[in-house]
Amino acid sequence: xxxxxxxxxxxxxxxxxxxxxxxxxxxxxxxxxxxxxxxxxxxxxxxxxxxxxxxxxxxxxxxxxxxxxxxxxxxxxxxxxxxxxxxxxxxxxxxxxxxxxxxxxxxxxxxxxxx
Amino acid sequence: xxxxxxxxxxxxxxxxxxxxxxxxxxxxxxxxxxxxxxxxxxxxxxxxxxxxxxxxxxxxxxxxxxxxxxxxxxxxxxxxxxxxxxxxxxxxxxxxxxxxxxxxxxxxxxxx
Lengths: 115, 112
Fold this sequence. Notes:
Radius of gyration of chain A: 13 Å
Radius of gyration of chain B: 13 Å
Order of helices and strands of chain A: EEEEEEEEEEE
Number of helices of chain A: 0
Number of helices of chain B: 0
Helix content of chain A: under 10%
Helix content of chain B: under 10%
Largest sheet of chain B: 6 strands, mixed
Largest sheet of chain A: 7 strands, mixed
Oligomer: heterodimer
Strand content of chain A: over 45%
Shape of chain B: globular
Structural class of chain A: mainly beta
Distance between the termini of chain A: 37 Å
Strand content of chain B: over 45%
Distance between the termini of chain B: 40 Å
Shape of chain A: globular
């Protein structure tokens, strides 16, 4: 079974704090993704990575950065957290390698509250 | 960018059929997906359909695709309380790097 784990299920931070969200996958997947989920808006892609040290902006990258130093780990960083970043954050991974059908496997999510 | 739309909420009685609808704008979609999110969990792929198909059936699930109208539906037969969840429609396009575009999700509530 593919397993995608996220470091925290719930996180409470203060405005201006630096926040790290960690994601690890155990299936040697090439691609990894960070989404945020807000009611009625579905999932919106923040950043994705198709290889170690490679990253691409998604639809809403402002206020976020990412790091992929190892293939299995993809970190999302909020340099200075703001209240409008309160959300559910979901990590996903997929095989990649230009597959026509490339299922994404999701972690359980981290619910972040910024006070 | 491309858009995927779903209604926010659906309520059905246990044993009835549920139909969740989705519309999308990408005329070059390659695959269309239904993901299920149970309370407190991440998303899990429920089923998917290739864009050159118009129907796919998998046990209690039937996916219908009307490519001309860009309309996708998920029918759940004999809906159970365990089917209560949020269902997300998504599409991908091989010409756009296979990124997924998600709808806003439909919350299905099954009443006993």
